MarR family transcriptional regulator (Staphylococcus auricularis), 115 residues
Amino acid sequence: MEKIEIKKIDDVLVVSQYVKRFYREVKKELKLSYEEVIILNYLYNADSNEVSAREISRASGLEPYFLTKAMQRLREKGYISKKRNTVDERTVIIEVDEAQRLKVNEMIDRVNQFI
């Protein structure tokens, strides 16, 4: 993808169209929503195999409702596991085992091909 220098609203609109097309293609071809891509990318870049849902929410700006729905879909697709923090059961921990880590990495590599 070419580098775009943003100096005016027209440039913002062009970038917006690229982003919309990107997510439309990802959704169609890979069956991943915007929120799912954000979560998978966060996990892809995480140093740990366990991260809190709150941490993802803060970093991504996703509202808890959308984050919860996307995490449920990713869990059903086998990308993640969820558990409760043993110290504070209100905290949801997203867990990725080695097989899931491989699956996440492969999917992000596929998503990157759309750029």
Q: What stands out?
A: The mean pLDDT is 91.
